[in-house]
Amino acid sequence: MQARRLAKRPSVGSRRLGSCGPPKAESGWRPARREGSAAAVEEEDEDEDAAVVEVDEEEEDEEGGGGGAASGSPPLRGKGPKAANIKREMTFPAFQQEDVKSDISQKLPDQQFLLFTTKEEDLKTAETKKLSRVHEYEKENTRSVCLLEQKRKVVSSNIDVPPARKSSEELDMDKVTAAMVLTSLSTSPLVRSPPVRPNESLNGSWKEGGFVPSSTSSSGYWSWNAPSDQSNPSTPSPPLSADSFKAFRTPSQPDDGIDEAETSNLLFDEPIPRKRKNSMKVMFKCLWKNCGKVLSTAAGIQKHIRTVHLGRVGESDYSDGEEDFYYTEIRLNTDSVADGLSSLSPVSPSLASPPSFPTQDAIRPETSCAKTETKLMTPLSRSAPTNLYLVHTDHAYQATPPVNIPGSTKFTPNGSSFSISWQSPPVTFTGIPVSPTHNRPAGSGEQKQAHTVLSSPPRVAFGLRKPRGEGKKCRKVYGMENRDMWCTACRWKKACQRFID
DNA sequence: TGTGCCGGGTG
DNA sequence: CACCCGGCACA
């Protein structure tokens, strides 16, 4: 016996080392580096983004543009105005990508015009019209940008958080946005009124591409509906115009407080019936420990994180996306609580989009972080003061704030690893490095997986032993001297089967 | 420190 | 599978 024990001990020791039982052993876990299989995830992320944009449009329709820029930005939320993101913001929804290639080339207004104009002077007229239209919209776009700014100031002053100054990146994004709008205007089949209406056969092909004449087409407006979405058949939103404008909007302008309808009006001089104004203000909160700084723009918060927390003073333009992990987007309801609650309902853009996340929780739990978190009301949202916070974490690794909240996922400041901690000190987490969202080198799937773990109590997550039974046990009842009267389980030092709790 | 019992070894 | 025990967590 003694000899056996002596022989066993070493093996026991090594065994324990390898086992992943109690948290104690886990403290030795080494986190996976964030830099992971970037390529694979990027592709996946692209899909997701496209889907998000798609859904966002649906939601936009539903809210009647009340969300304005606020609801327009979610798909791009959390993506700083980095050069890499510019590319992303130019990414069309999946169906658009298809259509843009095929349909636009066939159905652009000028080409439509060509279809129906044979004389040379008509061609010239078309060219002139086109140019004048471009100039016109250039003016109007400038005007709308000014108004956006104005509106932003008003909204920002309504809440106590001072708006971050528009960074140069944002301005660049404005330019990009304007350019995109102009481009789309010059190529869009119809913005105000089509020079010539397509004939029936053309209509057919438009339908195929998802463009269907709306019920208001008699007034010269066409609506554009995704084939799968027939819920809003008459929403006037020409391809690559209003929606595109929204889609191209930079996340650094999360909420300008401008109605979508207003934007459309500005851009298209269209008397769109006003709908309820969206009262959600999207802010970006720094999740760095003991910081909690809130800025109104992603760029601002990224800059803040880069400079203040990451100490990257000289590389303000450079971003590896790491700072994305350290802030979260919060939706600040400036309306009544009731409205806030309704906004928390599953209609939320990121929540009510099964198509966007076809492989949500059950199938791919690691991709559902943000959503799960929102559903579960994170500590941050719970600790929100008077205003209602709706926390969105689209950023990889970012589930809950790294502030002193037990049970939060956090990322170590060195960025080389992330960790889950149920207490303040982080417990490193081993995970499979998965999808870097966007263009960042790190993975988003990781975060979501981590969050899945967080969604359940730590005991369950770590599979700790069940609560000790408090009833009588054989040992107590019979005593050591009557060990032969014990149940076998007790004799074997297993859970008592005679006095089961 | 005593107790309950998990995890794993041995035969 | 029965049996045993190291060792951990908890009271």
From TrEMBL:
Region (Disordered): 1-87, 189-261, 435-454
Record's compositionally biased regions (Polar residues): 220-234
Annotated keywords: DNA-binding, Metal-binding, Nucleus, Transcription, Transcription regulation, Zinc, Zinc-finger
UniProt GO cellular component terms: nucleus
Subcellular location: Nucleus
Chief place where the protein resides: nucleus
The keyword Thylakoid is annotated on this UniProt entry: no
MF (Gene Ontology): DNA-binding transcription factor activity; RNA polymerase II cis-regulatory region sequence-specific DNA binding; zinc ion binding
Domain of life: Eukaryota
Acidic residues biased stretches: 41-64
Domain named C2H2-type: residues: 284-314
GO BP term (any one): regulation of transcription by RNA polymerase II
InterPro entries: CR1/CR2-DNA-binding_regulator, Znf_C2H2_type
PANTHER family in the record: PAPILLOMAVIRUS REGULATORY FACTOR PRF-1, ZINC FINGER PROTEIN 704
Protein name per the record: Zinc finger protein 704
Species lineage: Eukaryota, Metazoa, Chordata, Craniata, Vertebrata
Gene name for this UniProt entry: ZNF704
